[in-house]
Design goal:
This protein is mainly alpha-helical. The chain contains one helix and no strands. The protein starts with a helix and ends in a 6-residue tail after the last helix.
Length: 106
């Protein structure tokens, strides 16, 4: 009777061990599959973000070039305005000189 009891308990322990290991193995496999899907999705998102970052960098580089050209254009315009102001001053002096000359009919 004790041998039968031990055999039943042994069978129950073995069955519980087998069931538990099978359950754990199945759970681990499911988690691994789920993780693989999540890793793939994250990898795709990372690739998309890297492409967007590259586009932003390119846009920033283009913007820097446009701003540099804009600064050059602004500087050229400021120089031209300064030159025209200088010429206007010279013309104003010449006009004042002509007005003061005795040959001007008043």
């Amino acid at each position: 009777m004790i041998a039968g009891s031990l055999a039943v308990w042994g069978g129950l322990l073995y069955g519980a061990y087998y069931y538990a290991t099978d359950y754990i193995d199945t759970s681990v496999r499911m988690v691994q599959e789920s993780n693989a899907l999540h890793v793939q999705a994250l990898s795709e998102r990372l690739d998309a973000i890297q492409l967007e970052v590259a586009e932003v960098k390119e846009t920033l580089a283009d913007t820097d070039q446009v701003l540099a050209r804009s600064d050059q254009t602004r500087e050229a315009l400021n120089q031209r305005i300064s030159e025209l102001d200088r010429q206007l001053g010279q013309l104003q002096e010449s006009l004042d000189t002509l007005r003061k000359s005795p040959d001007v009919a008043r």
